[in-house]
Amino acid sequence: MERAHPSAQNLYRLLMGPAAVTPDKPAVVQADENGVLEAISYRRLDLMARDYAAVLDGLGLDVGDRVVVEADTSAPAVAMLLACSVLGLPFIPVSPQTPDTRLRSILRTVEPALHARADGLDHRERAAAVGSARFGLGGLVVEQPPVRKDRRRRDVLATDPAYIIFTSGSTGRPKGVVMSHRAIVTFLRAMLDDGLAGPGDRVASTSPLQFDFALFGIGVALSSGATLVPVRREDLASPRRMIGFLRDAQVTQVHGVPSLWRPVLRHDPDLLAELEHLRSVVFAGEEFPTPELRRLQETLPSARLVNGYGATESMAASFTEVPHPLPAGQERLSIGHAHAGAEMTLVDEHGQVVTEPGLTGEIYLRSPALFTGYWDDPEATDAVLVPDPVEPRLGQRVLRTGDVARLGADGELYFLGRSDYQVQIHGNRVELGEIEGTLTRFPAVTAAAATLVPRAGGHVLVAAVVLDGARTQLDVGEALEFCARELPSYMVPRSIRTVPELPLTTNGKVDRALLTQELAAPRRTPAARQATNA
Predict the structure, then answer these.
(1) Which residue intervals of 300-428 are DSSP H helices?
(2) CATH value at residue 520
(3) Of 69, 179, 196, 489, which has fewest CB within 10 angstroms of its CB?
(4) Is residue 306 very low, low, confident or very high in pLDDT (cuts 50, 70, 90)?
(5) CA-to-CA distance for 288 and 233, rounded, in angstroms?
(6) Is residue 226 in a domain?
């Protein structure tokens, strides 16, 4: 059954290393179907992974055959990912909440040998040509075996793909990020060097399994000998239930997008006092509005807050501790320097490396932990894996991130926004993130997003803001005057609209397409809404 080459860097070997040292220690603490906490030891998780791998090996799957794993984060889901790693089967994690249309698109694109689903999930219509299986604490049961074929490979090598994460693509087709065992193991060892988590931690994972932030939590927790604590979707839906679960599970570190904390900060911040074991919060995926960040520091005064930056194509690039307290005049967080073994370089629009503090450029990441490429899309791969701008003749490839940053006095970077969130206004290039950061400095505004919306004769800049609850209305005139004082005239929004929440994608980022659609629609008066509902 064991097909991973003994000398290879393999995800299974790294994550199950603690099983030989602390076999009886909890590897995963999770809630059962009744919400009761249960602990799965490293020994039991390893045995589960090996049992799953034995079943998979009996199906005749070859190194490189893909397996779609549909599940929420749980001990059986982790065991399934580990089993695939042993056999060199790239896993494609998807969430049970993934829409049928998107799932079908992924299945068509990646042509998996097997679609494995966690026990208890609602029925889905499966692809006829794909094998199917179910897995849980009781084992892995094959419902329909995949079509058998001759095996062409014997050993699992470090350069073989470990997983494929599908993200949204600019063409509307999901884009598969292929990550090798060597890349992800190298990254996780860098996290060990940086000391992000340790054996005494209980690491709460809040992201859906299909997002790299979930894999990050699994990898950081298990590789460091810590305990992974998956938080159920139903517990995340309620601030009181979420905090209660984190408290009862004695969580010491929480991973999540900044918007994870918004409901409890707005509606019941006193609950956070119950998290007496919490020592650190790692956030990533979007900027943390500084008003909310300050409130989180105030309500969790002993917790270390860590700002994670990076892309799926490299898992992450940096983790920077937030100053505590955040200085009064600081409105933009540093993303610091790259993690151990990697380096971030700024390159300006002329292709020159930025060396002068205060200037901006696009971030290029030099790292041994970069993705292999996009699945079946060499053109898109070549657009982001590019020759090193410092010395292209060496043949080294680096990741062109598409992120814009400013160089700090000590070589640290300050993230300004995506280059594709850059817009042209009256011939001027504008970063929407700068406008949004300005708006969050206005009293009572906790979050903001800006976009261009169509108007007769062109486009105008419009913003949406979320208030902290202290005010029920925004003085738009005062807010616009504030922007006029802080920004060049061409960057001042034409209008500002108050919304209960910013629209978010499934991974907690601002859904800019939906925001543009909502802000482009004329705002109805109460009378018009009443007439519509009549």
Answers:
(1) 378-384
(2) 3.30.300.30
(3) 489
(4) very high
(5) 22
(6) no
Kindly report the pTM of this predicted structure. 0.86
Picking from 363, 396, 418, the residue at the C-terminal end of a domain is 418
The sheet with strand 495-498 has its strands ordered as 445-455, 458-467, 495-498
| Cβ count near 57 (within 10 Å) | 16
Distance CA 431, CA 360 (A): 11
Q: Which two tokens stand for residue 19?
A: 């099983």
- Return d(Cα 198, Cα 315) in angstroms, integer: 19
Write the CB contacts of 134 (distance below 8 Å, at least 6 apart in sequence). Answer: 116, 117, 118, 119, 140, 141, 143
Side chain identity at residue 93, one-letter code: P
Residues 81 and 119 in one domain: yes
What CATH code is carried by the domain that includes residue 66? 3.40.50.980
Beta-bridge mates of residue 37: 31
Residue (of 130, 3, 113) closest to 54 by Cα position: 3
Higher pLDDT, 374 or 523: 374
Torsion, Cα 273 279 284 286, to 10 degrees, reads: 30
Q: How many residues does the chain have?
A: 534
Mean pLDDT of 282-293: 89
The alpha carbon dihedral of 441, 444, 450, 453 has a sign of negative
Instruction: Indicate the residue among 418, 441, 459 that finishes a domain.
Output: 418
- Cα torsion at 419, 425, 426, 428 (round to 10°)? -30
Amino acid in position 334: S
Most confident of 19-33, 100-114, 422-436: 19-33
Q: In terms of domains, do 466 and 413 share one?
A: no
Q: Which domain holds residue 505?
A: 428-533
Q: Are 507 and 444 found together in one domain? A: yes
Compute the chain's Rg from CA coordinates.
Answer: 24
Question: Does 172 score more than 60 pLDDT?
Answer: no
Please report how the helices 432-439 and 476-486 are oriented relative to each other, as an axis angle in degrees rounded to 10: 120
161 lies in some domain:
yes
pLDDT greater than 80 at residue 199: yes
Q: How confident is the model at residue 526 (pLDDT cuts 50, 70, 90)?
A: very low
CA 397/CA 384 separation, integer angstroms: 9
The answer, yes or no, to whether residue 468 has pLDDT greater than 80, is yes
* Residues of the chain above pLDDT 70, percent: 94
pLDDT band at 359; cut points 50, 70, 90: very high
